[in-house]
Design brief:
Layout: H1 2-25, E1 27-43, E2 49-59, E3 69-76, H2 79-86, E4 92-100, E5 112-122, E6 127-130
Parallel strand pairs: 3-5
Antiparallel strand pairs: 1-2, 1-4, 2-3, 4-5, 5-6
Length: 133
């Protein structure tokens, strides 16, 4: 009987570990989003994480006569990327991101994790800077 209980507990632990790995560490998708960087901040009580919002160009709405802004909320783990984004508020940026199925407190509030900056364009001077990350 003891062997049976150990076998069941072992299987449950493996299933739980597999579920956690799939939900929080499996990269579900990768992509690039472009738009104006609305804000980028570091926040949190215990885990200080970098959070930002990108306003994508174009307006789409499912209901006729209404306007909806396309916003992309994301988190950043890499300190170098975060420091570069701190200076890009109000600029047009292209960000490469990884999408996870769930968010972890030490990784940020969003399942979208930006891992690099593709380019930064200043809308006033229209000067484009390709960032080598």
């Amino acid at each position: 009987m003891r062997r049976f209980v150990l076998l069941v507990v072992g299987i449950l632990v493996l299933v739980l570990a597999g579920f956690i790995a799939y939900k929080y560490y499996f990269v579900f998708g990768r992509g690039v989003k472009a738009g104006e960087l609305n804000f980028f901040v570091q926040k949190g009580y215990i885990f200080k994480t970098y959070e930002g919002r990108l306003i994508q160009t174009g307006y789409r709405s499912r209901q006729p006569g209404s306007i909806q802004s396309n916003e992309f909320e994301f988190s950043v783990v890499d300190e170098r990327v975060a420091q570069k984004l701190m200076t890009c508020s109000g600029k047009l940026v292209e960000l490469h991101y990884r999408e996870y199925l769930g968010a972890l407190p030490w990784r940020g509030f969003s399942p979208y994790i930006v891992d690099s900056i593709v380019s930064v364009t200043d809308p006033i001077t229209n000067k484009r800077e390709v960032v080598p990350f």
